[in-house]
Design goal:
The complex is a heterodimer of chains A (312) and B (376).
Chain A lengths: L1 H29 L3 H6 L5 H11 L5 H14 L12 H36 L4 H15 L2 H15 L12 H8 L1 H27 L2 H8 L4 H31 L1 H6 L5 H10 L3 H29 L7
Helix pairs in contact in A: 1-14, 5-9, 5-11, 5-14, 6-9, 7-9, 9-11, 10-11, 11-14, 13-14
Chain B lengths: L1 H7 L6 H11 L1 H21 L26 H10 L14 H16 L15 H21 L15 H37 L1 H16 L2 H11 L5 H11 L2 H14 L3 H8 L4 H38 L10 H13 L4 H28 L5
Helix pairs in contact in B: 2-15, 3-7, 3-15, 7-8, 7-10, 7-11, 7-13, 7-14, 7-15, 9-10, 11-13, 12-13, 13-14, 13-15, 14-15
Classes of the chains: A mainly alpha (312), B mainly alpha (376).
Chain lengths: 312, 376
């Protein structure tokens, strides 16, 4: 087991290096000279030269790459170009609000989708099943933007059931006051695709031999679904939920933007709007690292859930 | 005898004929295909300039409502607003300052009503008030004259500038669909090329492309898109196609690579090798037709996803430039209009997009089932 984890960590290195080089090339080569962005339109050649020296852009390519790697390892990306706040402080303070929305959302969405998908799998092939699937397709076809705009306008602005937007200082106020509508909307958007996916996981299991055996033993269909099928379908479900977690951190950016939640996703949007490269670079690298670790964690979880799995 | 036999023996239908037969028996899929085809025909008509060519002509009054809501010209409302105390914006019941605002409005109404027109909005005596009122009334007449040329209602309403919403939606669908389809095509071509090379040659090329794949997939897709959008300063249709296409090839790569690994040791490829076919010929003339259905399904799936992504990017202002109609930029305008009670642009863009994406998704599902029942 330990050997497996060590080997996987070792294998991460080339991928990580690839991500670092990709991000480096993207921002230092494709993006043009960062000094011009930082100095703005009203600048003279002298200022540009100064900034170039400050950023180290006048150094040769490999020295710059080395500076970048040192920044990543020391977690010191310097200051944001637009607000002057240090990037590490930006990341540390924006993670909390994001998690306040995402943790309850993930738990609720997973449980609700599993329940609904089992229900739909129970009546598989019926008209209800077909209608639910079509409703899911229609629901997924409406842009997430429309959900947010309409829900925010009707539920918060017109009916006043929720605050229109905002964020407080205390955790409980944020969770039970400000985060409610964002979570509700994200649930409405997120359930349809999860429901469809989980249903296929359940349907894959329903045709297995052990289900026929359970039926032959005289178990009720409900017991077969909730105990036998659910346990086996848990493996792909856990894999799906786990490997989606880091992406979710960014995926909630629209919600965070509309509701002024000071989270990571909103920070990315702001940084893109302001061409604030250090912030985007830092978030990209660390989220990529998180994704790799979560992938490893998912594989370990796989082993824990299914003893047949051989880790190689 | 032998001849008659062979001439009457029906040739077995190929993959495409079978798939088409399966598709045709699915009534929902055919309906979806018809809707998608309708959108594509509209797209062709608008791209060639036959329809919605003058979408940016200001033919209606500003915010002209849809016909069934009834005529209500912006000028009329504007005059009302100036004369009555209940001016725009409407009172928000949740506004903590509502009471204060009501009081201020009441005070102002008293001032206006008592003929004290010389006091402006800020309560300062205005010596030029008479003159300004004169100029305003003159302008009002001009506006009234101009309003005769503009229509008070339009079948689907008008936006802030008086553009016809239905023409704008058609023009917007052109942008969104063209971007979605071209980006999907780019991503599919890239993924197929990479997958073919990696799967066919194997060894270090396979290692290299697998490494490339793991690099791209370890950055969450949305984050990658936003990072590329941050770097590419130039806004335009081509930029957004590049952003989506260059980042979206990974799924196609994985599937096509697996297909090539499976096919490269099959007998027909070995036979092609035996008669001296080159690697390129084997990869693209012999193997590709046998895996092209996988690429086609992926193309369809990606198109749906990219149309949705384009809308989000344009909404955020990272997509098409200002002045180009797209569903995303329409939603962006509509977001602010909704607060004023002007819901028709939001409705038009949302419904058009939802109908197309629903039809496209249903068709994609059916296509996948018809072409490859094993794929999920």
């Amino acid at each position: 087991m330990t050997a497996y984890i060590l080997r996987r960590l070792w294998q991460m290195l080339p991928t990580l290096l690839g991500v670092v080089v990709l991000v480096f090339l993207l921002f230092n080569w494709v993006g043009g000279d960062p000094a011009y962005i930082l100095a703005g339109k009203m600048s003279n050649p002298e200022q540009i030269a100064n900034i170039r020296k400050q950023l180290g852009v006048d150094e040769p390519f490999w020295v710059q790459l080395w500076i970048f790697i040192k920044q990543i390892v020391s977690m010191d990306f310097g200051a944001s170009w637009s607000t002057g706040e240090t990037v590490s402080h930006v990341l540390a303070t924006r993670l909390g609000p994001s998690l306040t929305v995402l943790v309850p959302l993930t738990i609720l969405e997973t449980l609700l989708s599993i329940g609904l998908a089992l229900g739909v799998a129970y009546v598989r092939g019926s008209l209800t099943d077909r209608m639910v699937m079509i409703a899911c397709t229609v629901g997924m076809s409406i842009s997430i933007l429309v959900y947010i705009i309409v829900f925010q306008y009707v539920l918060a602005y017109q009916w006043g059931l929720f605050p229109v937007q905002g964020w407080g200082d205390s955790f409980s106020e944020n969770l039970f006051h400000y985060a409610l509508l964002p979570i509700l909307i994200a649930l409405a958007v997120g359930i349809a695709p999860s429901l469809r996916l989980f249903r296929t996981f359940f349907l894959d299991e329903i045709n297995q031999d052990y289900v026929r055996t359970a039926r032959a033993k005289g178990l009720s269909e409900k017991r077969i679904l909730w105990v036998h099928v659910l346990r086996n379908a848990a493996i792909p479900i856990v894999t799906h939920v786990m490997s989606n977690l880091p992406a979710l951190l960014i995926g909630a950016f629209l919600i965070e933007r509309f509701f002024s939640i000071p989270g990571i996703g909103r920070e990315v949007i702001l940084a893109v709007e302001r061409s604030d490269f250090p912030v985007i670079k830092a978030i990209t690298i660390y989220v990529a690292v998180a994704t790799m670790f979560f992938n490893l964690l998912t594989d370990l979880m796989y082993k824990a859930l299914d003893p047949r799995v051989q880790l190689k | 005898m032998l001849n008659t036999l062979s001439s009457t023996t029906p040739t077995s239908p190929g993959l495409w004929a079978l798939a088409w037969r399966r598709l045709r028996s699915d009534r929902l899929a055919m309906l979806a295909l018809a809707v998608v085809a309708l959108f594509l025909v509209t797209l062709l008509l608008s791209a060639t300039g036959l329809v919605a060519k003058n979408w940016d002509a200001e033919i209606g009054v500003n915010y002209a409502p849809p016909t069934f809501v009834g005529a209500q010209s912006a000028e009329e409302r504007g005059v009302q607003d100036m004369n009555t105390a209940e001016a725009l914006p409407p009172e928000n019941p949740r506004d903590p300052l509502a009471a204060v605002i009501r009081q201020l409005r009441a005070e102002r109404a008293v001032v206006v009503g008592s003929g004290g027109a010389a006091i402006d909005d800020y309560g300062i005596v205005d010596p030029l008030a008479g003159e300004i009122a004169e100029i305003r009334s003159g302008q009002g007449k001009d506006h009234a004259a101009a309003a005769i040329e503009r229509r008070a209602t339009l079948p689907f309403g008008a936006d802030k500038w008086g553009h016809d919403i239905i023409l704008k939606t058609i023009k917007g669908s052109e942008t969104s669909i063209v971007v979605g389809l071209s980006a999907a095509l780019l991503a599919t071509v890239l993924g197929t090329l990479f997958g073919a090379v990696a799967g066919y040659y194997g060894q270090w090329l396979d290692d290299f492309f697998n490494w490339f794949y793991s690099v791209f997939t370890s950055i969450p897709y949305l984050l990658l898109i936003l990072a590329v959008a941050a770097v590419l300063q130039q806004k335009g249709v081509l930029t957004i196609v590049l952003i989506l296409g260059l980042t979206g090839w990974t799924g196609v790569f994985r599937l096509i690579r697996a297909e090539y690994i499976k096919h490269k040791s099959r007998e027909y490829v070995l036979a092609a090798d035996a008669i001296g076919a080159s690697d390129m010929r084997r990869m693209f003339i012999h193997i590709f037709p046998n895996v092209s259905h996988v690429a086609l399904v992926q193309l369809s799936i990606l198109s749906v996803g990219f149309i949705k992504s384009e809308v989000i990017l344009s909404f955020l202002g990272f997509g098409v430039p200002v002045g180009v109609a797209s569903w995303g930029s329409m939603l962006n305008e509509a977001q602010n209009e909704l607060i004023l009670g002007k819901w028709w642009q939001l409705a038009a863009a949302s419904v058009a997009m939802a109908v197309l994406v629903t039809a496209f998704s249903l068709f994609t599902d059916a296509l996948r089932d018809a072409l490859d029942p094993k794929l999920r």
